[in-house]
Write a structure and sequence with these properties.
The complex is a heterodimer. By secondary structure, chain A is mainly alpha-helical. Chain A folds into 2 domains: 97 residues, no CATH class; 221 residues, MetI-like fold (Orthogonal Bundle), CATH 1.10.3720.10. Chain A is built from 14 helices and 4 strands. In chain A, strands 1-2 form a two-stranded antiparallel sheet. A two-stranded antiparallel ribbon of chain A has the order 3-4. In chain A, β1 and β2 form a beta hairpin. The longest helix of chain A has 36 residues. By secondary structure, chain B is of the alpha/beta class. Chain B folds into 2 domains: 223 residues, P-loop containing nucleotide triphosphate hydrolases (Rossmann fold); 109 residues, no CATH class. Chain B contains 12 helices and 12 strands. In chain B, the strands form 2 sheets. An 8-stranded mixed sheet of chain B has the order 6-7-8-3-9-10-12-11, with helices on both faces. Chain B has a 4-stranded antiparallel sheet with strand order 2-1-4-5, with helices on one face. The longest helix of chain B has 18 residues. The chains are: A mainly alpha, B alpha/beta. At the A-B interface, α10 and α11 of A face α2 and α4 of B. Chain A: It comes from Herbidospora solisilvae. Chain A: It is a multi-pass membrane protein. Chain A: Belongs to the binding-protein-dependent transport system permease family. Chain A: InterPro entries: BPD_transp_1_N, MetI-like, MetI-like_sf.
Chain lengths: 337, 340
Amino acid sequence: MVTYIIRRLIGALAMLFIVSAVTFSIFFVVPRLAGVTPDDIANRYVGRAATAETVQAVAQKLGLHDPVVVQYGRWVKGVFVGSEYDYGTGVEQCPAPCLGYSFVTKQPVWPDLVDRLPVTLSLAAGASVIWLVIGVSVGVLSALKRRSVFDRGAMIIALAGVSLPPFFTGLVALSLLSYGLGITAPGGAYTPLTENPGMWAYNLILPWLTLAFLNAAAYARLTRAGMLDTMGEDYIRTARAKGLKESKVIGKHGLRAALTPIVTIFGLDVGILVGGAILTENAFSLQGLGKYATTAIAANDLPKIMGFTMLAAFFIVVANLIVDLLYAVVDPRVRLS
Amino acid sequence: MTFLQLNDLKVHFPTDDGLVKSVDGLSFQLERGKTLGIVGESGSGKSVTSLSILGLHKGGRAKISGEIWLDGEELVSASQEHVRSLRGKKMAMIFQDPLSAMHPYYTVGDQIIEAYRIHNDVSKKVAKKHAIDMLGRVGIPQPDRRVDSYPHEFSGGMRQRAMIAMALSCDPELLIADEPTTALDVTVQAQILDLMRDLQRDFNAALIIITHDLGVVAELSDDILVMYGGKCIEYGSADDIFERPEHPYTWGLLGSMPRLDREVTERLLPIKGSPPSLINVPSGCAFHPRCAFEPRTGGKGSTVVPDLVETEGGHLVRCHLSREERRDIWATEIKPKLES
C-alpha cells in the first residue's frame, strides 16, 4: 500500500514535468519554428514603443537567446527557488514558487493564482455537492421507475442539461432569476466564505446551479445506467432471496455497486473544475482561475497562461491520484500492489 | 397437509413479442425431509418456478396464477411484504454461480450476518459468531478467519459452501437449489452434493434441486419432475425415472447423459432440435417436433395437448402413446442402446 502510494506520487511528479515541458515547448519552441525571433517575444514584454536596442537588451537579460532547454531549466528552477526578472527598468523579484512573471501586468503569476483560487474552489465545491446529490438521486429514481413519466421527463431534462453550454443556461438563469424575478445575485460579486457565509452562498447560488445543471444531467444518466445494470445482477436477487427489505436492497446492495464508477468520474470532474470552470466563471464574471485564463489568453500573456496550465494540470494529477486510492477503498477487488 | 404444494401454477410474462408462458400449469407436492429434483433444458421453466415460490416475481411484470401452499399458507395471493418476511427464514435459495450471486463489495461474513439479522433480532457480535458456526458447518476451514474474506478470495467450491451457509443461516424449512453445482469443477460437484445431502438430513428441510443434469438428481432426489415447455411431462420416484421412464423426452435426457460404464465408442443419444419457444409453443404436445415417435400418435401429437396421467403408483406421464407402446419402446428400443 505504502509502496503503491510512493510509486503513484513519483508518477504524478513525472506527469507534471511532462506537462510543463510540453506546455513550455508550445509557447517557446513552436513560435520559434514558425519564425518568431527572441526579439519578437521580448518586444511583447517591453511594449511597441520601445526602441530596437531596448528590445534586444531585454531579450538578452531574459535569456531569450539561450537554448530552449536552458530556458526551460531556468523556469523549473524558478518554481522551486524563485527567480529574478530584469526587463530593463529594474530587477523584479519572483519568489518561489515562481510560475512565471507577467510582463503585461508586471506581476508574478503565482500570487494572482492564489488570489483567485478561493473563488474557483467555492464554485467547484458548491456545484459538485449539488450535482452529485441531485444527479445520483434522479438517476436512482429514474432507474427504479424505468419508463415512467418521471423517468422520461428526467431524461429529457438531462439531455438538455448535457447539451446546453453553461454560458447559455447561465445567461438565461441570470435574466430570469436575477434580473427578472430579482431573487438571486446579479453576478460578478464574490464574498469570501470566512467573511460572510450567507453572502458567499447568495452570490454563488446561480453559478452553482448552472454548473450543477450541466453535470447533474450527466450524472443522472450515468447513475441510471449503472443502477439498471446493477439491479439486474445476481447478487441483487440473492439479497432479495434473503428477505431483505427492498429499500435496503436498493440502497445497500444496488447503489453501493453502482456508485463506484460515479466516484471515479466525480473525482476527475472536480479536479478539472478546480483547474477553472472557464465558461461558468465568464458567464457570471466571477474572478476565478477560469476567468484569469481567458483574460491571459486574450492578452497573449504567455507566463500567465503557462502558470495557469501548470496549476490546472496539478489539480487534475492530484484528483487522479485520489481517485486511484479511493477506488481501492470502494472496491475490495482492487488491490494496491 | 403437505408441506409444499403447487396447484396449477402459471407464470406468464407479457413481452413486446407476445406472452411468454414460462410455467404453464404446474402442480406438485413435497414433504419435509424429502428431495424433489426438477429437471429440464434451459427455458423449460424450472428456474422461474423456483423464483415464483420465493415470491421474487411478485410486483414485477409476471402474471402469476394458481396456488402455492407452504405449510398451510397460500403464497400467490399473499402480500409481497408477507412473502418477504418468509424469504430467507422459512424458505431459502442457493443460486447457480456463487461468484455473481454474492455481493463483491461485502465480506462473506457480512453477507451471512445480514441474512441472519434480517430475521433474528441479535447483535452483530452474536450474528458473527453464528456466521462462523455456519461456515464451519459447511466445511470451510478456519471459519473464524475466512469470515472476513471477500467472495473473490474464495475458490468456487468454497464460495458455494458459503452460499449454502448463508441460505441455511436462518434454518429454513424449504431449501431450493438452482443448478447448485453447474458452475463448479467436477471434483467439487460431488463434495457439494454430499454436503447438501448431509445438511438436509440435519436440518430436516424440504429440498428442491433444479438442474439440467440428471446425474445430480440421481444422487439426491427422492422424486423427480421432468419439465418441458413450462409443463411437467413426467413425474415419479427416482426409480421410476431412471428404471422405467415412459416419456420420449426423458429417454432423450437419459441418452444425453455421459456415463463411465458405457463403451467409449458408443455415441451419446442427443435430443434433436432445440427447446421450444415459450411464446409460440408448438401445437399439441410441445415436444412433438423433436419426438421420434410422433408418427405413432396418428396425428394427435401435433393437434391435441396430452394430459398428465398416472401410469402406475404415483408415476405420471404426459404422452399420447399408450402405456403399452411406451413400455414396449423403452424395453426394446431405448434401454438396450443405453446399456450397450
